[in-house]
Amino acid sequence: MQKHIPRRGFTYAEIGVVVLIVATTMTLVFTNLDSIPEQAQQAGIEQRDQSSQVQKQRSQDPIARPPARPQQRPEPKQQTSESQNTQANNLSDEEEVKEPKQVDAPAPKLDKASKKRLKRIAKELETDAEHLLRYIRKYEGHYNTKISEKQGLLVLLQKPTGVDFKDTKFRVIAENKAHLYDPWGNMYVLVYALENELQIWTYGKDKQKNGSGQGLDKDFNILNPNTYPQVLRSL
């Protein structure tokens, strides 16, 4: 026969301890659950900061970047002696017909009398250019030949020696010989430039070829206003 043992109940003190333990445990659990998202967010921020610092160090570190490849210059082509001779000949030919380079002095300030005198010179140059072109074309049409540089514009006034005009009778082409002379009394110079381009030159006020090149002393082609001295172009 089994012995009956009477069941003892919990005292109020024991129940209070158990409730206190359970409450404390639940408080700790909920506190940890609330702090987990903050810890995860803080860990993500720290990881991003570390990544940015690593990238910054790599960009500043010259060793981390690959060295730039040096640019290779193409080797100059070697010219043969024949091509060098041809180039030298072409340069010499161009130098013979190239217009002399002369540096213009800046145009000075002019009074009314000086401006009037310069305008008269510019107008005279323009008129001479028009008449000389007409005389030269008329000569070429009449004699069926061009005026050579050696003959010059004088053939418009008098028959050149040693020239056979065959059945054509010589006659004076220039109706007004004044157009053959520049404003300073020198006869204009006939020049054929590259591609047989007709040019008519004056040596300027100093009457010297390749003179000082300053102001009205400059040599220029009266058929090309761009070659005129600055003092005339500025009018």
Set out the fold topology.
Layout: H1 12-60, H2 81-97, H3 112-143, E1 189-192, E2 198-202, E3 220-221, H4 230-233
Antiparallel strand pairs: 1-2, 2-3
Structure summarized in a few sentences:
The chain is mainly alpha-helical and 235 residues long. 43% of the residues lie in helices and 5% in strands.
Report what the structure shows:
The protein is mainly α. The chain contains 4 helices and 3 strands, in the order αααβββα. It has a 3-stranded antiparallel β-sheet with strand order 1-2-3, with no helix packed on it. The longest helix has 49 residues. It is rod-shaped. The N and C termini lie far apart (148 Å). 12% of the residues are buried. The mean pLDDT is 77.
User: How many strand segments?
Assistant: 3
Shape: rod-shaped
- Which bin fits the share of residues in helices? 40-55%
Q: Order of SSEs, N→C?
A: HHHEEEH
Main sheet specs: 3 strands, antiparallel
| Helical segment count | 4
Strand numbers in spatial order across the main sheet: 1-2-3
Unreliable stretches: none
* Derived structural class: mainly alpha
